[in-house]
């Protein structure tokens, strides 16, 4: 009898433990919000793979590089795109579905944002009508998007592109190993260099480059290659000033992060299963190993998982670094605690899926955006150590790159499409809708071609160079006037303010040290 009572009591305890565990698991799952936010714009490339896309730091301009070596520059009107999205949402709710049993019909109706297919060869955009499953040619500038210029920039694919600190110029490198600097507004090449000319060995001449990173305070640019070397070039004349070799013991450079909080010349690189921390001025620097304890390149412990990407949660504070890993987790690093010797903790994102790209939200919310190989993007709260929001970029394609536009919309991209997502807060929505009726009209003058000192030519679509500059200046001035006194719009200018502040701080970096941390 006593045994029966004990067994019954044991069963009750185990049952209670199971219920509590189930409730805890349900609560944890409930905390992850399946986002209701939609893109305001989706750019598709049905014929040619997209390799990278970057957003201008101060203007609604997106530049995209393709697998064929083409680069296209588009300008978009966020308020017009948001207003169109809101109208289609209301129409979708108001219009009853005659065939509710048709699952595919319902799925198509859910796509209320503007979808445009990019014709890389001629730079035109075609509106993709999902409901009718057909493409129709329209005046896309009436929809809030237009092509500013397009060019065949590289032989082979575009491997990496980036803006300079102010967004005045773009740098691009292709599989042809030619680095080119071009004017952002016109697309005209102002400087180029064959990187193979810097090296003597045939192996180095044929090494492909994987990453570009530019200093926000000093005129130099870093290029990472497949051999684990990082080359430092002058951003003005593209001359080679230093090479740091075999940082990750011969493995490819996956990412480069500027650690300018510590020093203007300090950078972090990621490759294979390690993280490295170095000074770009060090000549003949070697990794610190058991055989070479005096090495100037500080390499982390082996993470036993590939380190693919990284970013600081808040680049201005730079006290927490998050790295995306090959097995679906994000590792948390604290440079002020152990000088990046090893990770401090980890955050689970998606099991058996790689975290391929990561960027900070820059919203003072301790969050970052992660792009995964399963086609989802995840908003991760670094302070809480968990995923707080999920958005679907593509059901069949990986998220290969991410960025923020000038108003902090997250932008996700893969081989097939790019999505510019709407802002989250209702206040931001109202701000956008108030400008929804602004005219986005342009001159209908015939296209003008400008020689780009290049293999191909840059085609300016719709406007002359002077008209483009005037229009962009007007919009930027109007934007700055409109943002005065409004807290939500002050946040939108943080990205530009951050760059201006960094330029003002150049004098602090005269000796390469801004703060005497960990010396």
UniProtKB/TrEMBL annotation:
InterPro entries (alphabetical): WD40/YVTN_repeat-like_dom_sf (IPR015943), WD40_repeat_dom_sf (IPR036322), WD_repeat_multifunction (IPR051179)
UniProt keyword list: Nucleus, Repeat, WD repeat
Keyword match Manganese: no
Chief site of localization: nucleus
Cellular-component GO terms for this entry: nucleolus
Biased composition (Basic and acidic residues): 429-445, 474-489
Record's keyword annotation contains Repeat: yes
Ranges where the record places region Disordered: 429-459, 471-506
Highest taxon above the source species: Eukaryota
Subcellular location: Nucleus, Nucleolus
Record's protein name: WD repeat-containing protein JIP5
Organism this protein belongs to: Saccharomyces cerevisiae x Saccharomyces kudriavzevii (strain VIN7)
